[in-house]
Write a structure and sequence with these properties.
With about 280 residues, the chain is of the alpha+beta class. The chain contains five helices and 14 strands. β6 and β7 (about 105-115) form a beta hairpin.
Length: about 280
């Protein structure tokens, strides 16, 4: 399900003035998105019993109701304890995307969702960073005033070292020609990958995850100028990059890398309850 809403003056100002000089073909790819977080309760049969959206007063008009109505249609694999279904509560994060920007209105849908709250686990049961030096801002991107977000997938070994790094997606908050956009994505991905190969982690030492032979970890890397960070509830305009599939990682159709709720370290194969229905609830 999709809905058509007004995006407000701030977004349209960005879309119509700040990026107006960009090439027309690339401009048509532009999206606007916002991240909505909250908590859902799942019933014994896997249906969503309640939906609570965080800080609804800070969301654009109509968004909180849209998210609640959409999620209410979802159905999950029932949570089991000793083989019996139980009610379950989980944190959720959904990425809303607005497309077809025209005359201050757009079509909005849910792009991806993540579930669970790894930060709520004791530190000994989750992966934490040991040494994670941030990548340097690419000179080419900095000179152009380009900003973006890189979504990395890492394979972390038992000793905490990184053996594999893949850039799953690079989104750009900048418009130029297709060729130059690709160069910028490559430069953001290159410095992020180089930095990630040198990172080290503290693996979990107790709990179910501690028994794994290795861990798949997702880490978002944000390249923004000081003061340009997007606040919760604000629309952010960008051009999405292509999603790269990874042969050594399973795919979840409900997952999108940019649905992760901001900076952090996320175990990729532990995304909370399993969603059985499509994101549009149909």
């Amino acid at each position: 399900m999709r809905t058509c809403i007004g995006l407000g003056f701030a977004l349209m100002l960005l879309a119509c003035t700040a990026w107006a000089a960009g090439p027309g073909g690339v401009r048509k790819q532009m999206e606007a998105s916002t991240l909505v977080t909250g908590t859902i309760e799942i019933g014994l049969d896997g249906a969503v019993a309640t939906v609570q959206v965080d800080k609804p007063e800070r969301l654009p008009e109509g968004i909180a109701v849209f998210v609640q109505e959409q999620i209410a249609r979802w159905r999950f694999e029932p949570a089991l304890v000793d083989g019996k279904p139980v009610r379950a509560r989980t944190k959720m994060s959904v990425r809303l995307v607005a497309k077809d920007l025209h005359q201050g209105r757009a079509t909005v849908s849910i792009r991806g969702a993540t579930f669970g709250d790894s930060e709520a686990l004791p530190e000994a049961e989750r992966i934490t960073g040991r040494q994670m030096t941030a990548p340097a801002y690419p000179m080419q991107a900095g000179e152009r005033g380009a900003q973006g977000a890189v979504y990395l997938l890492l394979r972390v070994e038992r000793d905490g070292s990184v053996s594999e790094v893949v850039t799953e997606q690079v989104n750009l908050k900048y418009i130029t020609s297709e060729a130059q956009m690709e160069q910028l994505r490559t430069s953001f991905a290159r410095v992020s990958t180089a930095a990630a190969k040198r990172w080290t982690f503290n693996p979990p030492t107790v709990g179910e995850a501690a028994r794994q032979p290795y861990w798949l970890v997702r880490v978002p890397v944000d390249f923004s100028f000081p003061g340009a960070e997007t606040k919760y509830g604000q629309w952010e305009a960008y051009v999405p990059g292509p999603r790269q599939s990874v042969a050594w990682a399973s795919e979840d159709p409900s997952f999108s890398p940019d649905a992760l709720p901001g900076a952090g370290i996320y175990i990729a194969d532990r995304n909370g309850p399993k969603l059985l229905t499509p994101l549009d609830g149909i």
